[in-house]
Design brief:
heterodimer; A: alpha/beta; Rossmann fold; 34% helix; globular; B: alpha/beta; Rna Polymerase Sigma Factor, Chain: A; 2 domains; nine-stranded mixed sheet
C-alpha cells in the first residue's frame, strides 16, 4: 500500500481515534510504529512532524522507503537517548504489553512527550476472564492470537491495572476510550468497571 | 576572483602521468589571496577543485545534491571514468530516473582537496618551489575538504544543499557538513560510515601507508621528480585495504578455496588461489589510477576524523540545533564501519531530537555494499529524498513535466 492509496475509511478505528487526539502541526514520536500506518495517517491528516521507532528492521526499511522518518530501536533501551519534552505527543500503540519494563517505558514517554497516547489490549475483557474462569486456559482471542509459550506479549494488563500505574507515576489521564470487540467506541459516560469488562482495547491520553 | 576553467584540466598536471590523463570535466581555481584555511594551522592557496555536475540547477538553487566520494573515489560519479574507461562509480544510484534522479536534482561531486584527479593535492605543483608538493603538501582533514566544497558551492551560487550524500569517507564528510554548516544542509544521507575512525581502521590504514613508504621507489615522497612510482607498495596497500571492504562470506561465496588456472597447488608462492589472483589484480590496477602520496593524505584525513572530540567528547553537541533531516544507512556484514558506528550517530541525533531515519540493510557484501546493487539501499534513498523534496517544496518529476507542457 503506498501513501496515495491509503484508504482512511478502512483504517483501524483505534488508529483514527489516536490520530484525532494529536494536535495538528505537532511533533510526534510513535514508539513501535510497525509498518508506519499510524505515522502515515498522522502525516496526511494532521500535518505533523512524525517520527517512529520500530524494533523489526524490515518494518523500518519499509517505512523509510515510504518516506517516513523511522529508526530501528527498542522501546526498553533507546528512549533514554531522547531529551525531555522533545515531542508534543509520544505514542505507544499496541506495544506496551510487549515491553520488558512497561512502567519504565511509560515513565520515559512521559518525560519525552508533553502528552502520551497509549493503546493496549485489555486483559480485563470478559472473554479473557471467561477463558481463564471456565476453560482454565490462558486466553487466546482474535486480538491476542498467540499461545502462552510463543507470545511476544509478556506484560498484559487490564484497564484498571493501567489506571493504577498512571496513578503511581502521577500521570494525568486526560481521556480514556475503550473499544468493544467490533472496534466500536464504548460510551463516554460508561462507568470504569464496565469499560474494563466490555473494552477489548483501550486508548489513554496522558500528560504529566 | 575565482578563475573558472572549463577546458580539460590535463594542463594542470605537473608530471607526465597526469598530462596523459585528459581529465574532461569542470574545474575551478581559488587564487592565492583567497586561500583555504586548514585545520593544521596553515593555508592552502591557490587551490583548485575538479568536479562534475549532472542535471540542471533550478531557479532558486534549491535542488542541489552534493555527493561526497570515498577514500579512493573521485568526481566521476555518473560518467565513464577518463582513466579506466569504466562506468561511473555510482551510476547505479545517480542518473535520470535513478534514486538520486538527475532529471530532478542538480548533482555535484568534487574531487577532494588532497586528491589526485584534478583537485589540488600532493601531485600538484608547489608554487613556492615549482616542483610537486609531495610530502610538503599540508595534512588535510575531513573538515578541510568540506570547507573547500563549501567554497565550490559559493562559487556555484548555492546557499543550501537539498541533500549531501556519501558512503565511507564520503559519509564522514556528510556528517561534517551537517555539523559545520547546519543552515546549508536540508537533508543528509551518511552511508556505511562513522563519526570517528576506529582504532582498528587506523591500524589498517597504517599498514597501507607503511607499505607505500617501504617501497624504495617511493623516494621519500619525491618519486615524481625521480621518474619513479612505488607501484608495489601502493598495490600491497590496496590489497590489504580491499580485504576490509569485503566480508568473509562474500569472499567465500566468490572464491572459496578455488585454485587459479590450475588443477592443484604448486608448492610455491605463485597465486595458487583465486582470491590471491583477484587481490593482486585489484592492487595492480589501482596503481594506474591513484597517486601514492595522495593515498597517504586521504587515509590520514580519515584517521584524524573524530566529530565528538571536536565537541567536548559529546557527539550530540556536534548536531545541536540541527534542522537537517537525516537518513543513516549501515550494512549487516560491514566490519569496517559496523552498524554500531551508525547507531552511535543515530543516538546522538536522537539526543537532540533531530529528524532521523536509520536503515540497516541485511547483506553479505560487506562495506562495499554501498557501491553495489542493493535494492533496499535504492528504496531507502529514493523514499527519503522524495519525502524530503516534498518538505522542501521541490516539484516532482511529473509536476515539472506538467509545468513544461503548460508553458508551451
Amino acid at each position: 500500500m503506498n501513501i496515495q492509496s491509503t484508504n482512511l475509511q478502512a483504517t483501524r478505528v483505534d488508529l483514527l481515534l489516536m490520530s484525532e487526539m494529536v494536535h495538528p502541526g505537532s511533533r510526534v514520536l510513535d514508539v513501535g510504529c510497525g509498518d508506519g500506518t499510524l505515522l502515515r495517517i498522522l502525516s496526511e491528516t494532521r500535518d505533523v512532524d512524525a517520527r517512529g521507532i520500530e524494533l523489526q528492521q524490515s518494518g523500518v526499511n519499509q517505512c523509510v522507503a515510504r518516506g517516513l522518518s523511522v529508526v530501528q530501536g527498542d522501546a526498553d533501551t533507546d528512549l533514554v537517548n531522547y531529551p525531555d519534552n522533545a515531542f508534543d505527543f509520544a505514542i505507544l500503540s499496541q506495544t506496551i504489553q510487549a515491553t520488558r519494563r512497561p512502567r519504565d517505558v511509560l515513565e520515559q514517554l512521559l518525560r519525552i512527550g508533553k502528552h502520551v497516547i497509549v493503546s493496549f489490549p485489555n486483559f480485563g475483557h470478559w472473554r479473557v476472564r471467561s477463558q481463564i474462569m471456565f476453560a482454565g486456559r490462558m486466553p487466546v482471542t482474535e486480538n491476542l492470537s498467540f499461545s502462552w509459550y510463543d507470545t511476544p506479549n509478556i506484560h498484559f494488563c487490564t484497564i484498571k491495572d493501567f489506571r493504577a500505574m498512571c496513578d503511581e507515576l502521577d500521570a494525568k489521564v486526560e481521556r480514556s476510550v475503550a473499544l468493544n470487540a467490533q472496534g466500536q467506541r464504548l460510551g463516554v459516560n460508561i462507568p470504569d468497571f464496565m469499560q474494563n469488562l466490555l473494552g477489548q482495547q483501550a486508548i489513554f491520553l496522558l500528560s504529566r | 576572483m575565482v578563475q573558472v576553467d572549463q577546458r580539460t584540466n590535463s594542463q594542470e598536471g605537473v608530471n607526465g602521468r597526469s598530462k596523459t590523463r585528459g581529465l574532461e570535466g569542470k574545474f575551478v581555481t581559488f587564487p592565492a589571496d583567497e586561500p583555504l584555511e586548514l585545520d593544521c594551522g596553515t593555508q592552502l592557496g591557490p587551490f583548485s577543485l575538479a568536479y562534475q555536475s549532472y542535471g540542471v540547477l533550478n531557479e532558486d538553487a534549491s535542488n542541489a545534491i552534493l555527493v561526497c566520494h570515498a577514500l579512493t573515489g573521485d568526481q566521476h560519479v555518473a560518467n565513464s571514468h577518463p582513466v579506466t574507461g569504466k562506468a561511473g562509480w555510482w551510476e547505479i544510484m545517480v542518473g535520470p530516473g535513478k534514486p538520486i534522479d538527475t532529471d530532478r536534482f542538480f548533482v555535484i561531486c568534487a574531487n577532494h582537496v588532497g586528491g589526485c584527479m584534478g583537485s589540488t593535492g600532493p601531485m600538484s605543483e608547489n608554487p613556492e618551489t615549482g616542483k610537486p608538493y609531495g610530502l610538503d603538501f599540508p595534512v588535510i582533514t575531513i573538515s578541510d575538504m568540506v570547507r573547500a566544497e563549501a567554497r565550490l558551492l559559493d562559487h556555484l551560487g548555492i546557499d543550501q544543499l537539498f541533500s549531501v550524500i556519501g558512503g565511507s569517507m564520503g559519509g564522514m564528510q556528510v556528517l561534517e557538513w551537517a555539523s559545520s554548516f547546519k543552515d546549508r544542509v536540508f537533508s543528509a544521507i551518511p552511508i556505511a560510515t562513522g563519526a570517528r575512525h576506529s582504532s582498528q581502521n587506523i591500524a589498517f590504514h597504517e599498514v597501507g601507508r607503511q607499505a607505500v613508504m617501504a617501497d624504495p621507489d617511493w623516494c621519500g615522497g619525491r618519486y615524481i621528480e625521480e621518474g619513479k612510482l612505488p607501484r608495489k607498495g601502493l598495490a600491497v596497500a590496496r590489497m590489504a585495504a580491499h580485504i576490509t571492504y569485503l566480508s568473509d562470506d562474500a569472499l567465500h561465496r566468490k572464491f572459496g578455496r578455488n585454485l587459479q588456472d590450475r588443477e592443484k597447488i604448486s608448492f610455491g608462492f605463485d597465486a595458487d588461489f583465486q582470491v590471491e589472483s583477484y587481490l593482486r589484480h585489484q592492487g595492480y590496477t589501482f596503481v594506474d589510477r591513484f597517486d601514492p602520496n595522495s593515498y597517504l593524505y586521504m587515509t590520514r584525513a580519515m584517521d584524524y576524523f573524530d566529530l565528538a572530540a571536536d565537541h567536548d567528547g559529546e557527539l550530540s553537541k556536534a548536531f545541536e540545533g540541527t534542522q537537517t533531516r537525516f537518513c543513516c544507512v549501515s550494512f549487516t556484514s560491514d566490519w569496517l564501519f559496523p552498524t554500531e558506528e551508525s547507531r552511535a550517530t543515530v543516538q546522538a541525533l536522537n539526543a537532540v531530537a533531530a529528524n532521523v531515519s536509520f536503515v540497516e540493510i541485511d547483506t553479505d557484501k560487506g562495506h562495499d555494499a554501498f557501491l553495489l546493487d542493493e535494492p533496499e539501499l535504492a528504496d531507502a534513498v529514493s523514499g527519503f529524498l522524495s519525502a524530503a523534496a516534498r518538505k522542501r517544496g521541490l516539484k516532482s518529476p511529473d509536476e515539472v513535466a506538467d509545468a513544461e507542457l503548460s508553458t508551451r
